[in-house]
Design goal:
The chain contains 9 helices and 7 strands. The chain is an alpha/beta fold and about 325 residues long.
Length: about 325
């Protein structure tokens, strides 16, 4: 299935065929957060307090007609994603910026446990949609690096995030979540490398302060939601499976070994790192070969040394025996 193929029967209809341009964000809604959080509102003071109540119908009316963009910059209303005849039940996941390694880890783990086939096999067929706060230019990259089979959209204005009550913080939280299957340092390095490899798109990933959440809709009604309180606070996969009605709580370990090149395939930086790694491996094999040969020579030398030592010992024994024979003969000659 294509990366951007919708799991629903038909995709939502675009607002128009023209390229959509971002309007200025609406500041009137009470959910709007300050552009730069301070310690007072949770910027660096640990996980912040957020409401976990699903949005009301009156709150949804404020966001129904807000646009999201696909990879081709076609515009769709938010309502068309969660409320249509084809989409009876939809889980919408709001991620952070497109270079966020934490969110990438979340989607890799989630997509290894929740598949389009398993969602469509539920008593109420379910769809899953991803929304990020960066520019739509990075959607193909994000779909590729996360191996995400679900449709991905962009909300570069962040109006949906603000009006649906999602917070802004840079705090990591106290505990490492279960879906993080790589050490934090490797996730951070990968994120930096991805930004460098993207060139001018490095500044199109989205707002680093913005965190997201998960919203489950059924027949156009919000049934459940989880808003992130820190940058690693996505709802754990077992919780998602429970809310969706999937049997079991397994969070499979991904069999793929992590590589520094993950997410950099096809880029100039990725090719350079690949060449450097190949050269490094060649040097390592050469060093191993030299070390093996030296070890063999050393072993051969030690064997020859032991042989010579044995020969010297035999010669010494022979000399001792000759001397003993001579001593025995001397008394006989004197008599």
């Amino acid at each position: 299935m294509s990366v951007q193929t919708m799991t629903m029967a038909e995709p939502p209809k675009p607002l128009d065929t023209k390229t959509w341009t971002s309007p200025s964000p609406d500041k009137s809604n009470t959910y709007e957060n300050p552009s730069k959080p301070t310690a007072a509102d949770g910027g660096f003071s640990g996980s912040i307090k957020v409401s976990q109540k699903p949005p009301t119908q009156s709150e949804l009316r404020l966001v129904d007609n807000l646009p999201v963009l696909d990879a081709d910059r076609k515009s769709f209303t938010f309502k068309s994603l969660y409320n249509s005849q084809e989409n009876r039940r939809v889980l919408i996941i709001f991620i952070r910026h497109f270079f966020c390694g934490n969110c990438q880890e979340y989607l890799r783990t989630l997509c290894s446990s929740v598949t389009p086939e398993s969602l469509q096999a539920l008593p109420t067929p379910t769809s899953l949609v991803i929304i990020g706060c960066g520019q739509p230019d990075l959607i193909p990259f994000y779909a590729s690096t996360t191996s995400c089979p679900f449709p991905i959209y962009a909300d570069p204005t962040k109006q949906l995030y603000a009006k649906l009550g999602m917070a802004r913080t840079l705090d990591l939280g106290k505990d490492r979540p279960e879906y993080m299957q790589k050490p934090l340092w490797s996730v951070m390095i990968q994120s930096v490398f991805q930004g460098l490899a993207s060139g001018r798109k490095a500044f199109k990933g989205g707002d680093y302060w913005q965190v997201g959440g998960e919203f489950l809709f059924e027949n156009g009604e919000p049934k459940w939601c989880h808003r992130m309180s820190n940058t690693r606070d996505h709802a754990e996969v077992p919780r998602i499976r429970k809310e969706l009605g999937l049997d079991g709580e397994g969070v499979p370990r991904r069999n793929k070994r992590w590589s520094m090149l993950e997410g950099l395939e096809g880029t100039s930086l990725g090719r350079r790192l690949s060449r450097d790694r190949s050269r490094s491996w060649s040097r390592k094999r050469s060093s191993m070969r030299v070390s093996t040969e030296q070890g063999r020579e050393s072993k051969e030398g030690s064997v020859m040394g032991r042989v010579k030592e044995e020969e010297v010992k035999k010669e010494a024994i022979k000399e001792e025996e000759v001397k003993k024979e001579e001593v025995k003969k001397e008394p006989v000659a004197a008599a």
